[in-house]
Structures
1.
Amino acid sequence: MKVLIVYGTKYGCTKKCAEILKSYLTGEVTVISAKAAPASLKSYDVVFIGGSVYMGKMRKEVIRFCSKNKIELMNKRLGIFVCCYTPNGTEGFIETLFSQEILSHASYVTCVGGEMNYEKMNVIYRKMFQALNKIDDFKKGFIEPQIHIEELQILAEKVMK
Ligand SMILES: Cc1cc2nc3c(=O)[nH]c(=O)nc-3n(C[C@H](O)[C@H](O)[C@H](O)COP(=O)(O)O)c2cc1C
């Protein structure tokens, strides 16, 4: 069984999740950035796609990978994970990130939490979150994210079963 995990990350959290996911998989597993993904998916039986969310949008390289490989992906066993601060199960959230076609084909789609790497962020982002944290409405709805390792394990099990 050949498995490909394709990720899109800005500060490394999604790559970390891809490696955690790999630890729950057997067979020949390749973890690769969407920016360096292979030209063809022909030799893979299973594909996992993971990406992080910025300003309500999935990372561009992940979207590009999905549209470029749309036809091949429809013939693979597929799992999708999202790194973000939006809690898993938030109604309608995942639907804004990927096409309906790809979401319906996937065996399992989930938000696995994330990490706010404040020290790696540029000054503008850091200042933006400092400012947002002073707004009561934002503070009320914002929970500092962490990686939900158990969700990655469930993803591995659901797609591989
Ligand atoms: C500037 C900025 C904007 C973000 N926008 C969103 C957002 O709109 N929705 C969300 O759920 N998470 C958002 N996040 C949280 C990231 O998706 C989260 O930190 C994720 O773990 C980053 O993963 P990465 O290091 O792989 O890029 C944002 C984070 C930053 C720094």
2.
Amino acid sequence: MTPATLDATVLEELVSAAVAAPSMHNTQPWRFHLRPETHTVEIRAALDRALRAEDPDVRGLHVSAGAAAFNLRLAVTHHGWEPVLRLLPDPHEPQLLASVRLAGGPHARATTAPDLYDQIWRRHTSRSPFSARPLPGPLWAELVDAARVEGAHLHVPDPDETRRLLDLTYEAETRTIADEERREESRGWIRSEAGTEFGIPPEALGPQDAAGHLPMRDFSALHPPTPQPAKPFEQHPQLAVLATDHDHPADWLRTGLALQHVLLLATRDQVQASLLHQAVEWPDLRWVLRDPRNGPEHVQMLIRLGYGPEGAPTPRMVASGALA
Ligand SMILES: Cc1cc2nc3c(=O)[nH]c(=O)nc-3n(C[C@H](O)[C@H](O)[C@H](O)COP(=O)(O)O)c2cc1C
């Protein structure tokens, strides 16, 4: 494909791809800005949609923006340019999280990697139970590799380690529900009104695990989890752990790149996913999420993967409204 002209239609397509990324509570905490003189699209933090109680250091906001940057880079390649991605390009402007310059001439495609562009529109979080069917080994290897390419580690815990991670998530979920500020903030992002652009519609929340076996996030914070695993939510939860060597804003953005790369590969192979981020939101629990066998690193995200029902779509801001 030869490069298109960067007209308003193409720009809106690029931004639509970016905003299709996952974000914490679907806050979509980003704004886009075109620098026409350098053919550069900037991603800036929308701090008015930051989660002050659940994400006080804006780590999750950076992860969300990193996922949007992955989509933007993919869309730029898909439209025939060579994307030049820079994370935190201006040290004096920490709210400028990333920029993607549209470079190159015809045949500029910089990558031989499979084109995941179409998966951007198919991917949704699925909070339903998944079947016991294991993910194939070659797919796991591909996911690990994808995270590495983006500057993160993806670990695949064994069943004992999975149980330990779920127990910590359960502990975090219990704490979050008991914390009035966090509880109210989370509830405020469940949106049932038509025409809303942000937040999570009730139909995307999935069933609650009344048995407490798999600590799915209770966004409404109405059901204190019960510790008695009567009927399991799913038989064999399959988790992956995203971690980075350091814990600076650039590492959080890289986590977002890795997360989205992993999620789009999973989508390509009809594998569903949801995220279990609760324990990462409590510093002491986040510390013990770390498996010492993996060396000194910082856990950024737990991803639950498997075969099951597709998730429901969530709303998005319109591209023209996301451009500032
Ligand atoms: C940093 C981050 C943390 C998230 N934490 C959770 C979580 O703990 N539980 C959950 O079910 N979804 C979690 N999500 C998924 C978002 O709720 C979801 O991406 C958003 O509602 C948009 O829906 P979609 O992924 O279907 O497009 C998280 C997403 C991000 C980027």
3.
Amino acid sequence: MCHNHGVTYIEPGVVEVHSIEYPKLALGDRKCEHGVILQIVSTNICGSDQHMVRGRTTAPTGLVLGHEITGLVIEAGRDVEFIKPGDLVSVPFNIACGRCRNCKAGQTGICLNVNPSRPGAAYGYVDMGGWVGGQAEYVMVPYADFNLLKFPDKDQAMAKIRDLTLLSDIFPTGYHGAVSAGVGPGSIVYVAGAGPVGLACAASCHLLGAAVVIVGDLIPERLEQARSFGCEVVDLRKETPLTQQIAEIVGVPEVDSAVDCVGFEARGHGVDAGTEHPATVLNAAMMVTRAGGAIGIPGLYVTGDPGAREEAAKEGSLSIRIGLGWAKSHAFYTGQCPVMKYHRPLMNAILYDKIQIAKAVNVEVISLDQAPQGYRDFDKGAAKKFVIDPHGMIPN
Ligand SMILES: NC(=O)c1ccc[n+]([C@@H]2O[C@H](COP(=O)([O-])OP(=O)(O)OC[C@H]3O[C@@H](n4cnc5c(N)ncnc54)[C@H](O)[C@@H]3O)[C@@H](O)[C@H]2O)c1
Ligand SMILES: [Zn+2]
Ligand SMILES: [Zn+2]
């Protein structure tokens, strides 16, 4: 039998690389003849993983992490018709059946058939259906014909793998945040968060033709990274209110669109920067978005947060000033990004050099053994997107 190793969640603050089972075309006693086994070429660490690793979810010990997967097909199940062994593919982090009413409507983030406990599933994630994660050497991907995006040319793809690896999640997610906030030519946008999702969103705003993209965070190195590809920045540690900092850049204290690329572990602004205020970004977005504007919310909010400071927040209830959003007729868009809606056009944007997404998020390639250190550095706020290369296949 073949061996396999994967990044395993042990306890808050601790992940380790363990020997794990080689994947089968099955999930428990559910057969997956529609699936494939992938040899993983690249698999990225995500801010979504950090919520689990910080002990802010109900993730069980022993969970194999990893939902951002790119790989080579090495075995295909009996019912796979169009994907073949040898294909190099990007895997959307959402697992989708392609058969339910939501999948048929393009809402692959809330597929009805892949998770017995709620709509929507992902690899290696708490409450997301029990599918084994892909920060590993090998992984099983179900419904392969529907889910996988095959790269047209393997050599060309390997040469751009640092960019293409971002198609499994953060590039489509950042882009979706921008699209759902109504960003288009000439837009003035506020992006909250300069982590990899915020940076991918900011770069996507440029791709969509935004006139000004203002990125806010509390980590200077991450703001510097945003500035490196043409964004304006606001430092939220300052006591100057966000509205005033925005006015100093664009002349008025408001924007057309705002995107929350932070989620529920948000820190307060100014004097509150040392503590968590889970509704801060949502309230700030309503404050700065003009009447009639839209707010994209890819940042993650949970239904259970054992680490919340307030009782209500332990069940995901936050103090959101919805009256303000109502008064300004804001549109809100939440939820998992339906990756499949965007991954093919964004692949072409990479292949035809319309965007330098790996440069924007500052990709750093590491080995599987270095993953625990990657998690620690990312948690400290490194201005990097860590990409694990489990088989040493990524060219220098
Ligand atoms: N919807 C989806 O499909 C989807 C997909 C991927 C990631 N996500 C979520 O997107 C969020 C961002 O992911 P990431 O990988 O960039 O994570 P990250 O933790 O690296 O980045 C979050 C950034 O927000 C900053 N921040 C904290 N409080 C802030 C505030 N009040 N205002 C502005 N910035 C603030 C932090 O300093 C940090 O740099 C996470 O919640 C993640 O779970 C959602
Ligand atoms: Zn992710
Ligand atoms: Zn479905």
